């Protein structure tokens, strides 16, 4: 039997990249999957079709993370469709880079709204409809732990904030057997960070392990492990998958 048989999941930012891979992987492991997107409706529907190809239910929901109400409504819609949410993956994120002179207060606010506030809003809403033993996993970044170059102050701050929030929520929700963890990808081949981009060789040069980008599927595999019953003892943790860039 697939390890997530009978489970339901909500993945934010599931239309592309890491989130799409997570949605597909959770479905392959047996879960029904709802996914949100900001604007890529067609790609979100394609991922939903891939979920259904695994014999699972799927639901694609437009919900911009900058709007807290939209995020809470997306959780409510997924819960209404599936009856519960066992697994919440806060994946949607944006990356705005620059020096302090280049970055604006709007960049700061937008990054915090999408990468941090929306995760809290989703967790707050999902915790209401999550059975005991549920799973909350947020996608952080290896840049939350170590910042190896210039221009990443706001993004790194947002991902570091997820660590503190994860630890606090692990305490709050632990009595219900709900685990709360953060996964820190390093360089992963997506639209956000293409492996042929201008900074890709520099990123590869930082790696202690194989000097290559991870695939979204490799990140999804780590998320799937944390979502599985086998990971009940893992909570308040940050797992890095970065080919050793932070070693
Ligand atoms: P991506 O290819 O740019 O995809 C981003 C996803 O998030 C898309 O589904 C997008 O939806 C959604 N999204 C963006 N802004 C949103 C908003 N305001 N509201 C709702 N959804 C929104 O990015 P990715 O590389 O897969 O990144 C996924 C996560 O991993 C992010 O949290 C990112 O910070 C993190 N991460 C990535 C890397 C990397 O190297 N790629 C490394 C470390 C951490 P639309 O398609 O509708 O725009």
Automatic annotation (TrEMBL):
It comes from Cupriavidus cauae. It holds the Pfam family adh_short_C2. PROSITE patterns: ADH_SHORT. InterPro entries: KR_dom, NAD(P)-bd_dom_sf, Sc_DH/Rdtase_CS, SDR, SDR_fam. It comes from the Bacteria. This is SDR family oxidoreductase. GO terms for biological process: monocarboxylic acid metabolic process. Residues 7-186 form the Ketoreductase domain. Belongs to the short-chain dehydrogenases/reductases (SDR) family.
